[in-house]
Amino acid sequence: MTVIARLFYRFAGIHSLLIGLLPFFIPVLLWQQDYRLTEVSAFIALTGVGFMIALMGWKALYDRRYWRAILIGSFIAELALVASLILATLLIERSMTLFILAALLNGIYNCFYWITQRTLFSAMTQSQTGNQTENKTGKQFGNFQIVIVIFLKIGILMGGYFLAQQQTLWLLLISTLLSVAAYYGLCKQAKYNESQLTPIDNAAIIDWRQKLVFTIDGVFLFCESYFWVLTLFFITNNNVMDLGLLVVGLTITLSIIFWGIKNTIDKLNQRYVFYSAIVLYALSWVIRSSITNHTEHYVLLASIIVIAFLTTFFRLSFNKQFFDDANAQHPLAFIIRKSYLSQRGLVVFFALLSLALMMMGESDKTLALFYWCLAPIAVLYGMYPLRHQTHLQSELNNE
C-alpha cells in the first residue's frame, strides 16, 4: 500500500468513526428538539452555505501547501460541531443562534472532510493506476465503501448507546481524544503529502449535463442522510439505539454483497451498469414512499434491505463514473467544481422546500409524497455523459 493510500484510508476511517458518534444523528437530534421538516430543510440549506464559505478557506490552505493545517481544520470543525450539538441538547429552550451556528459548522466540517477525502482518493487512484491498462476505480471505491461502513457503524453503535443513555458529554470527550490521537498519527504522512500537492487548475471541463447532475446530486445525498434517516427513526419507534442497531444490521448484509461487487464492477459494461443503477435508484425512492409504521415486519425489513442495496449500488456506479472523469483531466479542479455545484443546488432547493413547507404546512404523509416526487427526478442522473470515461478507457486499451 502506498503512502497516499495509507493516509487516505486512515483519514477516512477515523472521520467515519467520528461522524457515526454524533453528526450521523443530526436529523434525529433536530427532531427531538421539536424541529420539523421545515426547520430540517433550513438547516440543510445553511449547511450548504457553510460549505461554500469553508471551500474558500480550504483552497487557500491547499494553495499554500498547508496540508497539516487542512487535517487539523477537519478535526477542529468536527469538535466544534459536536460541541454545538451537545449544547443544543442541554438547553431547555431552543436557540435560533445555536441552530444557525450548528448548521454552518456542519457545512464547514463537511467541506474539510469531503473535499480532503475526495482529493486523497483521486490521488490514490491516479498513483495506483499510472500507466496500467486497467482502470480500477470501481474496486478502489468499493474498498473505500467497506472501510467507511465498518468505522461509521462502530461510531453509530457507540453514539446510539450514549444518546439513549443521555450521556452526550461522553461523546464530546471521546471525539476529542480520537481527534487528537488521529491528528498526531497522521502528521508524518501529511508532511510527505505536502510535497506531492499540485496546484488547483481552474480549467476543469464540465458540460451542462454534468452541471445538472452535480446540482441535483447534493439534494439526493442529503435526502438520503437526513430525511431517510428520519424515516428509519420513525420506524424504530423513535428509539435511537434501535436505529443504530438497524443501520448496523444493514451494514453487515451489504458488506457481504459488495465485497463481491467491488471486484467485478470494473469488468462489466459501464453503460449498462450505470443506467441500470439509475433506474433501480429511482425505484428505491418509490419503495421508500410505501413504507409506514403499519407495514408488516418482514416486508418492512426486506424493503429496507432492498433500498439500502439499490442506493449503495447506485453510489458505487456513479462515483466510479465521477472519479474516472476527474482523473481524465484536472482531478482537484473537477472535484471542487462538482462540490460547489452540489452545494449551490442544495442551498436553493432546501431553502425553497423550507419556504414551501412553512406556507403549506406538514402532515404525516409529507415525507412519502416527497419521496414520490424524488423518484422521477432521480432519472435525470441518466443525462450524465459517459463519453469521458469511454474515451479514457479506449485510450488506455490502446496503450
From TrEMBL:
TM ranges: 7-30, 42-62, 69-92, 98-116, 144-163, 169-186, 212-235, 241-260, 272-291, 297-318, 339-360, 366-384
Top-rank lineage group of the source organism: Bacteria
Gene3D superfamilies per the UniProt record, alphabetical: MFS general substrate transporter like domains
Keyword terms, alphabetized: Membrane, Transmembrane, Transmembrane helix
Protein name as annotated: MFS transporter
